[in-house]
Each structure stands twice: as structure tokens, then as C-alpha cells.
Amino acid sequence: MNSSEVDYLLERFLARFFSIPTKTKFNPNVTFSQMRVFMALKYGKKLKQCDLARVLNVTAASACELCSKMLEAGFIRQQIDESDRRIKWLYLTHKGKEMLRTLSHYRSERIGRLFKAVKTNRSQKFVDALNHLNEVLD
Known about the structure:
Elements: H1 3-17, H2 32-40, E1 47-48, H3 49-56, H4 60-73, E2 76-80, E3 88-92, H5 94-116, H6 120-137
Antiparallel strand pairs: 1-3, 2-3
Helix pairs in contact: 3-4
């Protein structure tokens, strides 16, 4: 198998796995891009908007628009840095943390259903491969 085939399979899998319908039981207004912001701000992490743009691999303008919508929806808040008032830190609000929990639960359910459909030894090989790939990327 060559790198083009792996690229195709990986892209196909990720697109299908992460294609969570926007109109679901958990929120009719959460987009995939917003889900990526939830994950970036997970565990009480704080980020500047420019850092968020880098993490998401989007332009500063795209990050700004995304943050504006999430601020308006009440999922994130901004706090001015006390030592440098030019810096605005982004945090998840209580509403944002609740949404993150819901999204994480939904994703875990999907992974569970996926693994039930796969033989146990193949599931373990997949987990081992993901662990190894993460080590390589670190």
C-alpha cells in the first residue's frame, strides 16, 4: 500500500467518522469547526485567538469569526490578561464545558459502536497503531 492509498483511506474514514450531523439531539447550532474549538480548550486550557488559529490550522480571520459566534452563543468567554492588557485569553464557559461533555460522550458512543463491529484482535491492533503513530508525531 502506498502513501496515496493510506491518505485516501484516512481522509475517507475521518470525514465519515467526524461528520456529526449539525442538527442532532445535543445541539442544532454546533458546527464541526466549533467542536474543534471545544477540544482545543478542553481541560480548562486557555488560548489566545492567534494560538487557536495555529492549533486549528486556520487563518486569523477565520479564528476571529469562529470565536465571535461561540462568544455570542455563550460557549466561550474572553478575559483580558492582567499583566498585558493587549492579550485576551479564551476559556470555555459552563455552557461550553457542558457541550464538551455531551460531544465527548457522543464521540465515545460512536467509537464503542465502531469497535463492537470490529473483531477484538483488530481493535487492539488499531489502538496499538494509533499509539505508535502518536509516539512518532511527538
